[in-house]
Specification:
Layout (H helix, E strand, L loop, with lengths): L14 E10 L2 E11 L4 E5 L6 H9 L4 E8 L2 E2 L5 H4 L4 E4 L11 H6 L11 H7 L1 H5 L10 H14 L4 E5 L7 H16 L3 E5 L3 H7 L2 E6 L2 E7 L3 H12 L2
Parallel strand pairs: 3-8, 3-9, 6-7, 7-8
Antiparallel strand pairs: 1-2, 1-4, 4-5, 9-10
The protein binds adenosine-5'-triphosphate and magnesium ion.
Magnesium ion binds next to helix 1.
GO molecular function: ATP binding; ATP hydrolysis activity; branched-chain amino acid transmembrane transporter activity
Family: Belongs to the ABC transporter superfamily.
InterPro entries: AAA+_ATPase, ABC_transporter-like_ATP-bd, ABC_transporter-like_CS, BCAA_Transport_ATP-bd_LivF, P-loop_NTPase
Length: about 240
């Protein structure tokens, strides 16, 4: 036996997804997806375009017209919980399109979603974490760069009290210096004990923040492995993801 192999965990995952199936109308997109995410852990979903990464996040949040399977947060079954109640379980979603309201200021965008779970990060802490948002607190959403919009979308979810945050391609289309800044923020959130589920195609970025990689293909979860194994898995990833 490889002595470096991590011991299997015996504690309960914060988020457990078992045999999740998801549909868009008649179209069956997710086929028995399973994943587990432990408190304080960061995992990254990878897979080629159309593999079902975004759909997995949407299914966890209850945003599909139909889903079946098991989704548990701290052991509580979420599958029958309606979408507007999902956030109360301390889970938040930052979609790829970010959803910043153009006519509202940074601060208005920040204050928009209600605080629904215990222990949300205060506005003061958010401005400390994202100094550029503090500087721009009165600017309208339209004036923000892509990176600032991404940070605002993340900050807004942090304020709700979410302890599990789902982030869909947070670095997409951003300049390297901004990608670095987002990486630093995610590492700070990890230090605060946040639990993160990323979808990320930038492996160089993902390897700095993720503890494990989950590989998806055609709506199926193929395997997961610790980030320490990334180099030895690279040929397999190239084959599946096409990078
Ligand atoms: N709103 C929708 N209605 C119908 N089918 C959809 C819809 N959104 C996505 N799909 C289909 O579901 C499958 C999974 O798409 P999904 O967006 O989850 O992939 P992804 O892994 O996030 O890909 P990408 O890397 O391009 O973001 C694809 O076949 C896609 O065409
Ligand atoms: Mg996607």
């Amino acid at each position: 036996m490889n002595s470096a192999a991590p011991k299997p965990r015996t504690d309960r995952p914060l988020l457990e997804v078992r045999d999740l199936n998801g549909w868009y109308g008649e179209s069956h997109v997710l086929h028995g997806v399973s994943l587990d995410l432990y408190e304080g852990e960061t995992i990254t979903l990878v897979g080629r375009n159309g593999a079902g990464k975004t759909t997995t996040l949407r299914a966890i949040m209850g945003l599909l017209s139909r889903r079946e399977g098991t989704i548990k947060i701290s052991g509580r079954d979420m599958i029958k919980v309606p979408v507007h109640k999902t956030a109360h379980a301390g889970i938040g979603y930052v979609p790829e399109e970010r959803g910043i309201f153009a006519t509202l200021s940074v601060e208005e965008n920040l204050m928009l979603p209600p605080k629904v779970a215990e222990g949300g990060i205060s506005v003061e802490e958010i401005y400390h974490l994202f100094p550029n948002l503090a500087e721009r607190r009165n600017s309208p959403g339209t004036k923000l760069s892509g990176g600032e919009q991404q940070m605002l979308a993340l900050a807004r979810i942090l304020r709700t009290g979410a302890r599990i945050i789902l982030l869909d391609e947070p670095t997409e289309g951003l300049a390297p210096v901004i990608v670095q800044r987002i990486g630093d923020v995610l590492l700070e959130l990890k230090k605060k004990g946040m639990t993160l589920l990323l979808v990320e195609q930038n492996f160089r970025f993902a390897r700095k923040v993720a503890d494990r990689f989950f590989l998806m293909e055609d709506g199926h979860m193929l395997e997961n492995f610790p980030t320490a194994d990334l180099d030895s898995k690279m040929a397999r990833l190239r084959q599946v993801v096409g990078v």
